[in-house]
Amino acid sequence: MDFLHGEIPCKYAYDENLSAALCELPFGNKAFALDILLPDNGIDFNKFVANLSDKEWDAITSNLREVEEEYVIIPKFDFTYSGDSTILATLKELGIVDAFGAKADFSGISESATYVSDVIHKARIKMDEKGAEAAAVTVIGAKEYAAPLNEFFADHPFVFAIRETSTKAILFLGTFRGI
To answer: What's the predicted TM-score (pTM) here?
Structure first.
């Protein structure tokens, strides 16, 4: 397994109830962040993920604090999701319904009666020595220096998210189990 490593100013939090650490790595202009939620060694990762709630996620992200420099070690990865099925039903459950039927109004883009017939989601997140890419968003790559006292070593499965920082809206969410 190839790892990326470097001394990076970032945000960090540890939650005793979760038995997990969170490292937030800034993207470009800091409007976005890559979060890596790393459970303690020995935690059953499947149970950890199954029991992770939005309230716990909010709690640990609310406790993030600036760390002048953290030595971050994370694996290189290339995660691609291409759903085999439509997400139309999910969008309707979320309350987006008018676009999919007779009430649809796309008069600004089409003269004929138009509606959305299907929605398929695809996503790709790639982390390598050049930085991270997620859709059209790119993070700043890490530079390598001498190791400081603090170290965040993602050497076992973790949860990752790409989030808009001002609203904390999660844009991408996944797990890395490749170690």
So the answer is: 0.64
